[in-house]
Design brief:
InterPro entries: TraB/PrgY/GumN_fam, YbaP-like. The protein has a domain of 196 residues. It has 14 helices and six strands. Helix 7 packs parallel to helix 10 and helix 12 packs across helix 13.
């Protein structure tokens, strides 16, 4: 997948699926001893036409008593989180060119120009931040908005409904996925974005279609293509986080009351996704359609 950054800035989606009569999305039900845990694939940015949501999302929410998100949404909106992210993104010494070399810098400059971004403003930032700026610009240009993402949508609904909300990961650990990223992986994140530069304009339409159509296989194949090329980066951004989240999901399955767990859709699909990892642990997992 072209954009696999943290949930705070993760990006996704556009037009291909907008005319579907019966969108299904990406939602699964895991059977607990006395309850169900619903796993729902989140799109952290969406266009207005994504609403109303595919019915399985509404059914899963209505059937649940608790909402579980990747991170504390309120904490993510506080100035402290923004300031910590930006402080970690800036170089203490040198600039992007001096840290990534002339060739990668030249490619970055060309793609940034095509996206309408100023390299003068990006030069002081680390590769992972520059990569996410390029990716987010492409989705914003396609009409996708972070304020329409599923995390914020369901967080607001849960608060209005006085429904308990909990994070899978503390805010510091959530931000550290990128803020503490080794320099080699930071460089890889920029490289993978530049490798897909020709696809940036089409990526929102493709990924939105996977999500809206409920095409788990298509999304998994898109992720696998990039994960094969950059395995250490994808371990850090996706698969290590999946393993860290599994104990919390297991605990939810052992308590009373249904829960809706909403995570980036890329965390659910493929052989190392949460759906297959829970099946491998002996749980019954079925698709909600």
């Amino acid at each position: 997948m072209r954009c696999a950054g943290i949930a705070l800035l993760a990006v996704i989606w556009l037009t291909t699926g907008s005319a579907l009569a019966s969108p299904v999305g990406l939602v699964w039900r895991v059977e607990g001893a006395e309850n169900h845990v619903y796993l729902a694939g989140s799109m952290h940015m969406l266009p207005p036409r994504a609403y109303p949501l595919p019915p399985p999302y509404e059914r899963a929410y209505e059937a649940s008593e608790r909402l579980v998100l990747e991170a504390d949404q309120a904490a993510l909106q506080r100035p402290q989180a923004r300031d910590a992210l930006l402080a970690a993104a800036r170089y203490d010494a040198g600039d992007l060119r001096s840290h990534v070399g002339e060739e990668l810098y030249r490619r970055t400059r060309a793609v940034a120009r095509d996206q309408g971004l100023s390299m003068r403003r990006l030069d002081g930032y680390r590769p992972w931040f520059v990569a996410m700026a390029i990716e987010m610009q492409s989705y914003r240009a396609a009409g996708f908005r972070p304020d329409l993402g599923l995390d914020g949508h369901f967080h607001e609904r849960a608060l209005a409904d006085a429904r308990p909300v909990q994070p899978l990961q503390a805010i510091d650990a959530h931000l550290a996925i990128v803020t503490d990223m080794p320099a080699s992986l930071s460089r890889d994140q920029l490289a993978i974005t530049l490798d897909s530069a020709d696809e940036l304009a089409q990526a929102p339409a493709d990924i939105y279609a996977y999500w809206r159509n409920g095409d788990a296989a298509g999304l998994a194949a898109s992720v696998a293509e990039q994960a094969d090329a950059y395995p250490a980066l994808y371990d850090r951004l996706i698969y290590d986080r999946n393993e860290a989240w599994l104990p919390t999901i297991e605990r939810l399955l052992s308590r009373s009351g249904n829960a809706l767990v909403l995570v980036g859709a890329v965390h659910l699909v493929g052989p190392r996704g949460l759906v297959e990892r829970l099946r491998a642990s002996g749980h019954t997992v079925t698709r909600v359609e």
